[in-house]
Amino acid sequence: MSDYRAPVKDMRFAMDELAGFRELSRIPGFEEATPDLADAILDEAAKFAGEVLAPLNRIGDTEGCKLGPNGVTTPAGWKEAYAAFSEAGWNGITSPAEFGGQGLPDSLGVAVKEMVCSANLSFSLGPLLTTGAVEALLTCASDELKSVYLEKMITGEWTGTMNLTEPQAGSDLALIRSRAEPQADGSYRVFGQKIFITYGDHDMTDNIVHLVLARLPDAPPGVKGISMFLVPKFLVNADGSLGARNDAHCVSIEHKLGIHASPTCVMAYGDNGGAVGYLLGEPNRGLEYMFIMMNEARLGVGLQGIALGERAYQQALGYARERKQGRDAITGEALVSIDKHPDIRRMLMLMKCRVEACRAMAYYTSGLLDRAHAAGHTEEGKRQLWLAEFMIPIVKGGGTEMGVDVTSLGIQIHGGMGFIEETGAAQHWRDSRITTIYEGTTGIQANDLLFRKLMRDQGATAKLVFGEVYATVKALAASGNPELQAIGQRLGTALKAWTEATEWLAANARSGLSGVLTAAVPYLHLAVTVCGGWLMGKAALAAAGYLDKGEGDQAFYRTKLVTARFYADQLLPQAAAFAETVMAGDCGVPEGVDLFAAD
Amino acid sequence: MSDYRAPVKDMRFAMDELAGFRELSRIPGFEEATPDLADAILDEAAKFAGEVLAPLNRIGDTEGCKLGPNGVTTPAGWKEAYAAFSEAGWNGITSPAEFGGQGLPDSLGVAVKEMVCSANLSFSLGPLLTTGAVEALLTCASDELKSVYLEKMITGEWTGTMNLTEPQAGSDLALIRSRAEPQADGSYRVFGQKIFITYGDHDMTDNIVHLVLARLPDAPPGVKGISMFLVPKFLVNADGSLGARNDAHCVSIEHKLGIHASPTCVMAYGDNGGAVGYLLGEPNRGLEYMFIMMNEARLGVGLQGIALGERAYQQALGYARERKQGRDAITGEALVSIDKHPDIRRMLMLMKCRVEACRAMAYYTSGLLDRAHAAGHTEEGKRQLWLAEFMIPIVKGGGTEMGVDVTSLGIQIHGGMGFIEETGAAQHWRDSRITTIYEGTTGIQANDLLFRKLMRDQGATAKLVFGEVYATVKALAASGNPELQAIGQRLGTALKAWTEATEWLAANARSGLSGVLTAAVPYLHLAVTVCGGWLMGKAALAAAGYLDKGEGDQAFYRTKLVTARFYADQLLPQAAAFAETVMAGDCGVPEGVDLFAAD
């Protein structure tokens, strides 16, 4: 068991210096998002996360959810915590005010969401899925469906789920078999089984709103024949009260490696005559609607990796400060706390700087989304949106892979105690392991970056990013500060590796597809490494500015310079290695040879 | 649940081509270790591991061990499997024949041990600890103690344990407080509590032989005042029959992240008047005796990482061949098994080549130990021993870190199913997580490599290794085979990085100790990366030879060339990055600054 104290200072720094939150309140539509409001919200959220949600994290892990005859029961304290969460308005923090949300910008919401994930990942998944479903309804629901469902989901009175996966259809949604039959009254009857449905059932709210992908009778095969349906657990009467129980049931829950308190349900629709459902938007456009939500959901999962990394870092730091072992290698002092040992310090630094770099990427991206949102359907709006969409697989892939690595370092710092479940360090690692899989595996993020985000505009967006990185390299070089210049030199080398690898991919995309495909994940790692170094470089420039002026928390800014330098020395050299791997092509795997034949 | 089929072909290849097993039977003392005998033993061991031990692996995970009033109960089937294991003589395979062992060389035993670990890591730990205790008795026990205990431990009739850790003394044995009081009859009474005692109690044998580190009344403080005692669970009568129950009890067992079926005990000695113990060797030399065993134990744990990587690879490959998802990106064929997808193939190749590279290192090292053993106290014997000792932290650190990475890839290949415990993929990852911690953390291995193995002879042994790697670089370059030359080029670059980093460390060891200390783990990764590439290069040379001659299993040798090339392209570029990180020095961490102050 460990406490969680939200890193408000670093969050605020990332918001102000990297996401451009401070300037946001000057943009029409975000006038209310003032620095003062942000202070108040971050403080309240930090309190709620630390005091209400964090203490339930280990209880959730040990108790888990149970499936009984009346459905799924959440662990002790869950229901009350959820009620308090909704009551305080946290559920709808970035949802539109017209439907009961707070209407706050993503670049503020991102910090609140990180806190909730750090405090209790299993808990956070309910609201995450609900927010996703809300986005879908905002995108494509009729006014009538919106009026019945939206406000209750935004306030958190009801939760939402996303039903994509079927046993035969994991990442490959073309294989979906669930079907929907039109009824005379304009509704549908939905039939099929869905698996891996997060919070598919629970006891925290009176109703659950399932969004289900299924096929209409005349639908074309493949992904172009999938429609989206709203299937409530309880039907809703005309006056808004709950009606009959719908034919949508959780038939089993999974026994998982982690996030034990998040019920992962097998859902059966229509086993008793058909589940009443309502078509969302137009027929056969379900996948398209799903992809609209995907950006936010992937950013959210990237944030989960960051959040678990932060929690693991705090716990490891706390342990290292308390645990006394061995002699100080430099001073010779006997029986020092292990945070004095160089390799423990190295691991703590690695945890800290990798979390901060990924946080910088996630918050920066949320700022892009705010600007895209504010600018709407203009050239500038599109530019910001495409930049955000370019960053999203980097944040998702990078944040989650980092989360697995960093929570593992957290165990390592605990030594043998890290392997004992009571310590709680292992839970973060177990919980993290799903994040590189759900909402699209790391391999899928890499393909998205390479084949969609990079190639859809022939590298135009990528060149914008390269230009931004190069501007940071130049600013660091021009700073006159040797620490910043050292960072700039490493960043410049890493950027060169990234651009070279990108050119290689562009040149080889047609001639050697197999090599380009195997290069995708190393290319993603390369992009993550450079983007992390770039934003740490920007952070260092900002920090150095405050140090020069003697403004603000000087100790915090000094530390930021050191973490940026550490990232540059320890992480940026890997960029060249990833680039070499990308450009190695098809990894020496001759086509058509079954390499695994002997195994 | 997954099957395990021992990779006998690759094991035999590593034994013959890298460990020099084929030549071993010409060395006096190893005449019996003929290729035919090896065939027979590997086949039998493979059968036993696959048919008896592997099916118990998941049962062990789900049932775990229980502590009741009569001590620890192992899971269903454990006791019978252990009896069969001992009966077949597997326990004493490398122990001296004069005490009932098989007296076989390490370079054959290593393959058998790998099989047992792959099949069932929790099971393997009992015999591993027993073998360690046997080594200790062989080193320092009186003839009397040897005659009473050794044969029964070698045959497996009794098991052994190692009792080092105490709550306040983890990696820092100077803090040990357990004490031993001399008695008039020459025995001792031992008092104290020990934690993390693997197989400290169980129901598989009639007796358990605990080796306990404790202090004599007049012992000097610190590590020079620690003695080693033999404390049996049941005293042994003069006729060899079991006597009174000794005052040595398991008081609790840990709830762990993995290896659930290996009981991790808190042991209480002397709570009821004192546990009868016998001094092993001379007073105050306990730590020295412990270090003698350490080589073998660390090699054994490195092997565990390899074994789990192999098991995870087999399971992931099996799943990828069965699971159908998506379209072939190159041929366009619909609904192909996922082993056709480039990124899945990349992950499978990464698993395979990393396991094979680490296997090569471990088996090579066991060959060095055999030669050291055969040559005894000669110059040649010392040279071989020091080479082996140089390799051991590389095998331990490299094999275990690889095991964690590769079992994680195993989960990733399973997608969402990997997160479901029933699949069994997650167990390998959980089990692997202890291996980078026990028998010395990765940080401790790195310090051992740098400050002991590298510096104790001013780099002389390292230069021998560099020379061997260089010889392989030259042979690859001279081969006339473009595949081999490509490998040679990458290996040459990587070797240059390793030598440069080594020279930097030698130059800075005195002036900037802090930087050298933080460089230790990156330096270990560098050594692992290059040694893996070196032995894969040697393997490729051998394979190419057989291909040229048209001898042996041509498909196997062709695959070996590809895995070697894959390793060179995907792993060797990282050597330069690790070297840069090593030479970055103290990672920009100014001394005396509390970087974590804000956290």
Automatic annotation (TrEMBL), chains A, B:
Residues 162-265 form the Acyl-CoA oxidase/dehydrogenase middle domain. This is Acyl-CoA dehydrogenase C-terminal domain-containing protein. The lineage of its organism: Bacteria, Pseudomonadati, Pseudomonadota, Betaproteobacteria, Rhodocyclales. Belongs to the acyl-CoA dehydrogenase family. Its cofactor is FAD. Keywords: FAD, Flavoprotein, Oxidoreductase. Signal peptide: none annotated. Residues 284-449 form the Acyl-CoA dehydrogenase/oxidase C-terminal domain. Residues 466-586 form the Acetyl-CoA dehydrogenase-like C-terminal domain.
